[in-house]
Amino acid sequence: MALPTLIGMVPDSVVSLVSMVTASRIGVEAVAGTGLASYFFFILMAVTSIFMVGLLVYCSQAYGAGRRDLVERAVGESLVVSLALAGAIVASSYLWIHGYASVLSGGQQEVSAVASTYLSLRMLSVPAMMVNLVLASSYRAVDMPWTPAYSSISIGVFSAVLIPSLGLGYLHLPRMGVEGMGLASAVSQYLGLLVYAFFRPPFRLRPRLPSSVLLRILSVGVPASFERVVASLGQNIYINAVARSGIEALAAHNIGISVESIVINPVFAISIAASARVGQRVGSEGSGGLDSLAREALKVGLSWMAVATALLLALSPYVGSAFTQDRAIAGLVCVYLVLAAVSEIGFGGSLAIQGVIRGMGNTWVPLAVNSLTIVLLRAVLAQALQPAYGIYGVWATQITDMYGRFAISYLLYRKLRSRLLVRLVP
Predict the structure, then answer these.
(1) Local structure of 108: helix, strand or coil
(2) Which of 30-39, 49-58, 80-89, 402-411 has the lowest mean pLDDT?
């Protein structure tokens, strides 16, 4: 289950690097501005967690219980609601994009202008992203995880070609700068949806009006969404502390996080797989065998992130110079990757055990734990440390956040696991 999910995540990291290289050819402001604009999609992912988590858990339990009729209804209702929400976001975006970019950039006008321009065009991808997330969650829940992987690969291929082509004027296309990068990202999302036409799931795909099934999805998805909202707000407060440390620090942060994402994405796949497998087990057997699934998830999550730590430490002295000629920025990239590497094992453990808890139908515990750590142990702490320690103090809060999150989540699972189980399918 985790392998195809992992493979589907790799193109996102590749596209992020392609975007970073393309932006670096345009200018430092483009690197900082496009990276800053991407933080909006953290907030968007918070909203889509209603479907990405709620739908995944509900459909997994329904599939495990043999209720494919409920899977069909859940997917149809989620498609209708997600498209309505996407339309509202895109239609209202012209009202808030410029103000959002200005606040997030810490008042740096050139960076703010780049961010708002790029975001206004990339925003057109939101409806396709919403549909893709609904379909991906439902296909994974019914043991068809390769189809979303193929869709992601297609999006990655189209993006890797179109972003530099429209951004820098390759393939006889006009050089459109950051506008071209945003437009290319949007077009690629729609092209990637075509894959689902060739791989039909074992249930009918058709729109459905909301019913009590949607309420059950929301009972799991809304806490997960609140969790992402709080995390996104925390990340935005955190990135504000980065931005206040200077444009060089912001550019280094964006380069570092793009490189880091390549080696840490597997643990997200493990978390998704753990939720799907645990959900299927709950639907078919109740609580039997959950401890063995939790142990396996932790083994894989911790093992991979130990490898990720070693990779980041090995790469840290060399990565910066591949993306910038500025030695100061390259040096800061090295510092970022070292501090990020130290935090990775805690990150892997927390995502694995929280994937198990979500699969059990309980999203309130991850909400409480992550809200506590992202706000207090990262966002607030970063703002407090920035005046005295600059960007080094800000980046160090990754460590306090991740290990605090893992420790609290693991202790709660061990102490309360029999009380965490929630059956969503009668």
Answers:
(1) coil
(2) 30-39
The DSSP string of 321-349 is: HHH-S-HHHHHHHHHHHHHHHHHHHHHHH
> From CA 151, how far away is CA 196, in angstroms rounded?
7
The token pair at 204 is 């009918």
Alpha carbon separation from 22 to 30, 108, 156 (Å, rounded): 9, 21, 15
pTM for the predicted model, two decimal places: 0.80
In whole angstroms, what is the distance from residue 395 CA to residue 402 CA? Answer: 12
Tell me which amino acid residue 170 is: Y
Q: Give 163-204 pLDDT, tens digit per residue.
A: 999 999 998 888 999 999 999 999 999 999 999 999 988 888
**Percent of residues in the chain assigned helix, strand, coil, to nearest 5:** 85, 0, 15
**Which tokens sit at 426?**
């009668």
CA distance 423 to 417: 14
Cα–Cα distance for residue pair 118/97, rounded to 1 Å = 10
